[in-house]
Amino acid sequence: MLKEAVYHRPKDNYAYVCTRSELHIQIRTKKDDIKRVTLLHGDPYDWDRKQWQPTTMAMKKSGSDQLFDYWFAAVTPPFKRFRYGFILDDGSETACYTEKGFYEEPPVDDTAYYFAFPFMNEADIFRAPEWVKDTVWYQIFPERFANGNKDNDPVNVIPWGSEAPSPSNFFGGDLEGVIQKVPYLKELGISGIYFTPIFKAYSNHKYDTIDYLEIDPQFGTKETLKKLIEVCHENGIKVMLDAVFNHSGFYFPQFQDVLENGENSRFKNWFHVHEFPLVTEPQPNYDTFAFTPLMPKLKTENPEVKEYLLSVGRYWVKEFDIDGWRLDVANEVDHAFWREFRREVKSLKHDLYILGEVWHDAMPWLRGDQFDAVMNYPFMTNILNLFAKESISVKEFVENMTSVIHMYPKNANEVAFNLVGSHDTARILTLCDEDIDRVKQVFTVLLTFIGSPCIYYGDEIGITGEMDPGCRKCMVWEKEEQNRDLFEHVQKLVRIRGEQPLLANDGDLRFISDGSDDGCLVYTKSDSGKNAVVILNTSSEAVNYTVPVDVRGKTVMNLFEDKEIAISGDKLELSLPGKGFAILLLY
User: Fold this and answer.
1) Cα–Cα distance between 75 and 393 in angstroms, integer?
2) How high is the mean pLDDT of the chain?
3) Contact 239, 229 (CB under 8 A)
């Protein structure tokens, strides 16, 4: 038994309150080392004749990655107090693992040996807005989506789609254009819009804010935004705006004051200035986003800066009834600021969605006191590596995705912002070498997995493009130039997800094949006797696949083809074309 590989701590994703009555416990062991794990647990005050009276329950193996096995148990402590340890069995040896270490026999003379969950306080439950679980997002880069009002075009506007996107060209996309295209979003099945920044800024991407309290004139007015939000809400669509609080733009008035007045500026402590006077070349002598002098970093621990930005967060919630804030470069802002930000905006709208841009393990931001979710870039990386770049095997995908799932509590995974493309990445069709079948598989996983999926504008009709700025092309509105087959594929997946709660976030996900023999990726989502099974043939060759699930006495529906599958005997066999897929419901 490799005891040094065993890991648990009563915190974060290893022990957390899931609901008012349910506690989730997880432990990690070396892959293929431990055969069984039993949870030894009890109330810390349950004693008889000077001996603690614990009970036991078997833990289930919830997944394996390249190095570790993960074991899981859900328990309901009757008095919300909990002491516990683990009995590990490798087939030839058993050991009791506690907070104080390993023992041959479980000690029962003192509960201090054991891990403690002192009390299941309701205030500590991770609570994200319920509506997010069922939302399908659509990311819009406003400058490139639709031009609905030519009267507010920038002076240097060029005809729509007339040339390749660049860091400096403008095509005139605006908020009125989005309003006019809400019927299109409804047709696709969208229930949430994530806008990249819409506040006054110098660039076409607007991540260099000049005024956080004004709509950029090229996008419209505050009245236009109010109309947009009203129309979206009438059509069941939530609206999330982008907050750039890590840094301002170069032409932010407070930064211009520091440039002009140096040490005499009343705003000199709003930024991370190394020395005066400020210089931008060859490298800025003030902290910035990356190394660009055009985005000076804000000092969010400064009380004046903090209050200014908090007032911005409150303003757009209170006055415009937005449904969410996406927080740019969120991992570079101090945790104390985000805790206060959450309190402020949630006090105005308790079910506001707070989404942080964090590209790595984000557990420090997902403890219920800061964000509701982060952009799930580890999810995206694995999807792209398997289907687009074809650089990993199905087995590696399953192992990698198992790691991603076990990074966070179940509550957080259900509202994770899953994406396969954005304004910061190459287009999914380009990454898939313009192979539509591979793109269809990508969307099939995106729209049947745990979490809240997001579609980057135009990906559903086959827009191509390399990395920024290539991925920021104008939306194509001429139907004859759209890939309508891909559109209908995505549209059908969105509809099925809405009709079948198991394909959203009602079921427990489990991989049931690692593709070692046949190249098929298979996972199930199960709940209350129902099973949804998603099967993807990653090979270019057709396969006859025997689905590894018990179908005895079951009705089996092919959800994508909307037909019942006849079963002969106790096995379910499918013929899948190369790069094909199936979505089944068993009940």
Assistant:
1) 36
2) 96
3) yes
Assess contact for 531 and 525: CB atoms under 8 A.
Answer: yes
pLDDT tens for each residue of 413-432: 999 999 999 999 999 999 99
Q: Which of 69, 174, 328, 340 is catalytic?
A: 328
Radius of gyration of the chain (CA): 26
Name the strands in the sheet holding 15-17, side by side, starting at the edge strand that comes first in the sequence.
Answer: 15-17, 23-30, 68-75, 60-64
How far, in Å, CA of 177 to CA of 186, rounded? 15
The H or E element spanning position 509 is strand 508-513
CA distance linking residue 576 with residue 49, whole number of Å? 64
Residue 514 a catalytic site member: no
State pLDDT tens for residues 199-232.
999 999 999 999 999 999 999 999 999 999 999 9
Q: Is the pLDDT of residue 528 over 90?
A: no
What is the C-alpha separation between 211 and 217, in angstroms, rounded? 11
Q: For the stretch 434-447, what's the b/e string if a residue is b when 16 or more beta carbons lie within 10 angstroms of its beta carbon?
A: ebeebbbbbbbbbb
Whole-number Å distance between alpha carbons of 169 and 167: 6
Is the whole model's pTM more than 0.90, yes or no?
Answer: yes
Per annotation, catalytic residue among 357, 399, 414, 518: 357
Please tell me the distance from the alpha carbon of residue 527 to that of residue 550, in angstroms, as a whole number.
15
- 570 belongs to the catalytic site: no
Whole-angstrom CA distances from 582 to 398, 425, 466, 537, 556 are 18, 28, 30, 9, 12
Checking if the pLDDT of 38 tops 80, the result is: yes
- E-only strand ranges, 189-309: 192-195, 199-201, 209-215, 238-243
